[in-house]
Amino acid sequence: MTWFFFCVGLLIVAYFTYGKIVEKIFVINPERKTPAQTMADGVDYVKMSNTKVFLIQLLNIAGLGPIFGPILGALYGPVAMLWIVFGCIFAGAVHDYFSGMLSVRSNGASVPTVVGDHLGVWAKQFMNIFALVLLVLVGVVFVLGPAKLLAGLTSTDVAIWVGIIFAYYIIATLVSIDKIIGRLYPFFGALLLFMSFGLTIGLMFSDREFYSVGLDFFTNYDPSGLPIWPLLFVTISCGAISGFHATQSPLMARCIQDEKSGRMIFYGAMILEGIIGLIWCTLGLSFYDSPELFKAALDAGSPSGVVHEISIALLGSVGGIIAILGVVILPITSGDTAFRSARLIIADFFKLSQKEIIKRLYIAIPLFVVGFIISKVDFNIVWRYFGWANQTTAAIMLWAASAYMYKRGKFHWITTIPAVFMTAVVIAYLANAKIGFNLDMSISTIMGVVGAFVCLGMFFRIKKA
Predict the structure, then answer these.
(1) Rounded mean pLDDT of 77-93?
(2) Phi first, then psi: what are they for 173, rounded to 5°?
(3) CA nearest 85: which of 13, 26, 160?
(4) pTM recorded for the entire structure
(5) Which terminus of the chain is more solvent-facing, meaning fewer CB atoms within 10 Å of its CB: N or C?
(6) pLDDT digit string (tens) for 288-303?
(7) Residue 412 to residues 43, 98, 256: CA-CA distances in angstroms?
(8) Which residues of 66-100 are buried (b: 16+ CB within 10 A; e: fewer)?
């Protein structure tokens, strides 16, 4: 228990210390007008209070990732918690801050435009395609996950819930951001916090011991023997670092009141997501008596089954259902904004105004058709591709942030070091994984390290402003 609170304390302290350092290096301008002030359109550019923007940002980024990822990552043992803490502080929160603030500086531009501004036209065109693929995968993953949980609660067929969730997505994607998202998401945020901290309290007063596997950080507890490197750093994305957040931050960059709010909204929301990740990782490490029983539960019911079992056991039938609904809301509130972000990226590419609803429909309908088709693919396959695409997007966004800093003669290493690390991760993962090239791990690791330093060498060829 002490270790859990120590990890949470590190994240909170980091917000007030390292978060301020990042903000100081970036150099904010509190007097600079934001896109919500200069480009207000009543649809996507809408000025809202910091509290609302913070809660919406949290719900936008906190999909299934900080729950399913840490649950799966807990199979590797307590080392997963170290990745959540240090990944969140030095990579994830920094990534989110720069993706949000660089969008603010670019009139609320989507991630492909931000990347293109700092890495060139070729990077922009690549990110246009890559971000769309990621967002559609996210939307699909965040349909199937909650649909399975709702089906378990109601005994209604999963396909029916998939249809209902897609119908909601269509509505939420098309209407003004302050009509549904701005009004309902603050309430959903409170439900999310109840779910997270309620389960922690439930574990404290249960007869289960914290960390049933012990606190050995050097042992891989996964019964399948899957390697920690590089799988852990792809399995736990949201909660540590997630490229999906770079697609979501521009939504709130279009609603933020001033630049001084950026640390709270972007860096702060990621820190809170890291705490949620720690809670679910701790539950995975503590609820079951052994890694074998934990693995058996995952095999029998997937992470959604584990969420259902833990919630009902620790909070009872009523509290458990409320907690499960909190888990359901997380992916749904990220899935709708994933499709919304995809619509805006396409609109930016074709320079198509989104004030008229008919023009929104031109983009939204084909997107949802593609998403529905992909939803028929096996969930585990979609999740694996999502994981790799997610972390690759994070690496690219970090390189863009580094280029922004390097060109201006600022201390770029706060983004460059995590960019190098994440580049090594995604190259090694793609080389080794069955969905990739299925190469030997030693060869894959060499390819990852060499590839990362090749990217670093190319980075230093960028001309300073």
Answers:
(1) 95
(2) -75, -30
(3) 13
(4) 0.87
(5) C
(6) 888 888 888 888 867 7
(7) 35, 12, 25
(8) bbbbbbbbbbbbbbbbebbbbbbbbbbbbbbbbbb
